Each structure stands twice: as C-alpha cells, then as structure tokens.
Amino acid sequence: MDTTIWALLLSAISISFIHTASGPDHYLPFIVISKSKKWSGMKTTILTVVCGLGHVLSSLILGFIGVFLGWQLNKISWFQDLRGNFSGWALLVFGGVYLVYGLVQAIRNKPHKHFDVMGDEVYVYEHNHNEMVMPQKRIRVTPLVLFMIFVMGPSEPLIPLLFYSGVKHSMYEIMVLVTSFTVTTVLTMLGMVLLGRYGYSTLFNTEKLERYMGVISGAVVTVCGIGMVFLGW
Predict the structure, then answer these.
(1) Are 222 and 15 within 8 A, CB to CB?
(2) Residues forming a β-bridge with 116
(3) Which whole number is the average pLDDT over 163-169?
(4) I want to staple 87 with a disulfide (CB 3.0 to 4.6 A). Which of 11, 166, 167, 176 is the partner?
(5) Planar angle of CA 213, 214, 217, nearest 5 degrees
(6) Which residue, 23, 7, 6, is CA-closest to 207?
(7) What is the pLDDT of residues 104-154, one digit of tens each?
(8) How far apart are the first and last CA of the chain?
C-alpha cells in the first residue's frame, strides 16, 4: 500500500478506536445489563456486535454522503486539474474546524449520557455535570433502546476521509476505510464490554477522555490533511 492508503487507514483506525473506547456509553450499558440480567457471554457478545454494526451503519451513511459529493465533483471537467489539491485542503480544513468545534464543546460542558441501575433495571439519561436529573427524564434501557442509541450516534470525522477518497474516485481506498472502521469499532466495543463483564478495569479514565473526543478526532484529521497537502502523502 502507498503512503496515502496508510495515512487514511491509520486515521480511520485511530478515530474509530478513540471514539469507541473514550465513550462509556459504548460499553457500560452492555456490562451493566449483562450483569443485572445474568446474560450469558454469548448473548452479551451478540447484542454488542449488533449494536456496534448499527453504530457503524449510521456513520457510514454520513460518510457515503461525502463519497457521493466527491464523485459528483469528479463529473465537472475543470475540477479534474484541481481535485488533488482540493481534496487535501478540504481534509485539512474540516479537521481544523472539527478541532475547534471539539474545543468549544469541551469548554461548554456539553451534555453526555449516563446509565443508572435501579433494582434489576437499567436507565439512561442525558445531563451536564452538576445538573440534577428528574426521574421522569430517565429512559429504561432495553436491547431495542440500546440499538437505537447507537444508530443515532454516528462518528462524524469519518466523513472527510471518505470524501477525500470519493474525490479521487478510489474504490480501493473507500473499501479500506469502511473495513478498517467497521472492524475496529466492533472489536473495540466487544473488547471493552468483555473486560468490564469479567471484572477487569480499563487502562485509562474514559469518562475524562470522552469530553475531548472531538478535539482528538479533529487533530487526527488535521494531521492527515497536513500530510496530504504539505508532505505529499
């Protein structure tokens, strides 16, 4: 594989891994429900994988919008001479914008999900730090609710990576990105769930890292864009 493919591959893997591992909502509910409902390891694994694939699907839908836009630009004759520089700069600009957006969200203390155990039931709610949550705002978590939570929470930083490959009209790059993102996301979710289910703690405080997920993702895309524009990746 050439340098461009490696850069896109490493970006997709790092974004999907950090996005998944830094958010307790990607694995904590599975751990809690599995223990409270006394699910088997197989049932827990199947639900985790299905929800992971639903999460990937929503991310890819947004990503393929980027691919479509890139392909449409390729149909414009005068764009052919500009597409290399344009796609690299688009990647760089999106990364910078997302980096700033992540910093603003981290500073503003954006709402985040929490899961509570009450008896044999698990409830989900969203709040800011130091904010009280009324009982009626809590939603009982079921397998269907879990699936919907993941489908409605895509990973936006995948969009510029697929847009870049769409502009280049490279099906090979698109397949590499889709495959690496899917496999990394599902395996990371499953790994974190199994670690928690069998009593092992994670290596870092994911709740603190979650707050800076936008910053980290934006930085990864920005570095990738810098490489494409200035380093000839």
Answers:
(1) no
(2) 123
(3) 77
(4) 167
(5) 85
(6) 23
(7) 877 776 655 666 666 666 676 665 555 554 445 666 777 787 787 777 777
(8) 12
**Residue with token string 């395996």:** 187
pLDDT tens-digit series, residues 68-87: 877 777 666 555 555 556 77
The domain tally of the chain equals: 1
pLDDT-derived band at 205, boundaries 50, 70, 90:
low
Cα 113 to Cα 133, 162, 169, 174, 205, distances in angstroms: 11, 28, 38, 32, 16
Spatial separation of the C-alpha atoms in residues 32 and 116, rounded to whole Å? 9
Lowest mean pLDDT among 62-66, 172-176, 207-211: 207-211
- 178 vs 161: CA distance, rounded Å: 10
Tell me the DSSP string of 183-224.
HHHHHHHHHHHHHHHTTPPPSS-HHHHHTTHHHHHHHHHHHH
| C-alpha to C-alpha distance for 179 and 200, rounded to whole angstroms | 28
What is the C-alpha separation between 12 and 6, in angstroms, rounded?
A: 10
Per-residue pLDDT tens over the stretch 49-61: 999 998 888 888 8
Determine contact, residues 50/151, Cβ cutoff 8 Å.
no
Please give the Cα distance from 109 to 177 (Å, whole number): 31
